[in-house]
Amino acid sequence: MTMNRTHENTGRLPEHAPRLDWAKLAPDAFKVMIRLDAAARQGVEPALLDLVKIRASQINRCAFCLDMHSKDALAAGEAAERIIQLDAWRESRHFYTAREIAAIELTEAITVLTDGFVPDEVYAKAAKEFDENELAHLIVAITTINAWNRFGVSTRLVPGHYTSATA
Hints:
Blueprint: H1 22-25, H2 27-41, H3 46-60, H4 63-75, H5 80-85, H6 98-111, H7 120-129, H8 132-155
């Protein structure tokens, strides 16, 4: 991976450098995050999980995670249109199922805790669409992507170099 490369042919600005390699410096924590991510995935269907990861990453402005999860979703067959519309899902509801909307709303509520709490109506809508096991795993998945986003943003991971394993 080449850092700080310029995009002379395109006129793009150069990349920023990452602040530090937290995964290398805190390998035990990184391994725990990998295990937590794998455990959460077991209870959530992959396409839904991609939407959750992208939406949380949009809210948290984690460019690295947006790059990764958008590429993974596209490689898995997700329609580009649904990824593009995700940030405006309230006006683009017709692109998503009721189950996906419930997961997206729950993702927003858990991600933006500055509003104070997860509203009962948001939780009830999710509980209607998911059984308790699925809901528990969904909450773990949302919490996990929020943690990944915070690692990515605080250490300034560089987007653009990720290649999906499923591509």
